[in-house]
Specification:
Elements: H1 6-19, H2 32-35, E1 42-47, E2 53-58, H3 60-66, H4 84-96, E3 100-108, E4 114-124, E5 133-140, E6 158-165
Antiparallel strand pairs: 1-2, 1-5, 3-4, 3-6, 4-5
Amino acid sequence: MVELTATSERLMALWLEARDDALVPHRKAMTPDRLKSILPYLMVLEWEGDQRLLFRLAGTQVVDGFGLELRGRNLFDFAHADNLDAQRWVMSRVCTRPQGLCIDAQFPGRDGRLQDYQILYLPLAEDDGERRRIISVISAVNRSYDRYELDGPARITEYTQTAYVDLGVGIDDGFEPPA
């Protein structure tokens, strides 16, 4: 069982409130006014198939943390090659199943030490009912969200815990694509 940070808990509560009786809330229900308390930590991504999950919005603390503008960039460009296929499959399942995804991970800090962060991903519905957008927050675990210096794209150093979030239709058994 993953313990959510206060920022992740807030996104989850807002997401549940916005979905009303639907399985997944419509993206237009997640208004800036509704999300104002978590906007600095917010990300909105758009699924464009197995190769591309594009940042459509990244809050100020996210941009400061990565040290670069993320809008239009592909999330998979920040993944390690050795787990890229698994990451693509897991992220696709956020939209297609649908299910949430919570990742506790470590990023290298500007001082060279690893810093713990939590990322919560939740699906959003489009006008046509398809689920191509993902709303997400990133929050530091037991520390402030410091900007770190980068010599290239930020990369998650280690996943310390990964868990699916059941949104009402069950969850997958594992984190690897079926054989």
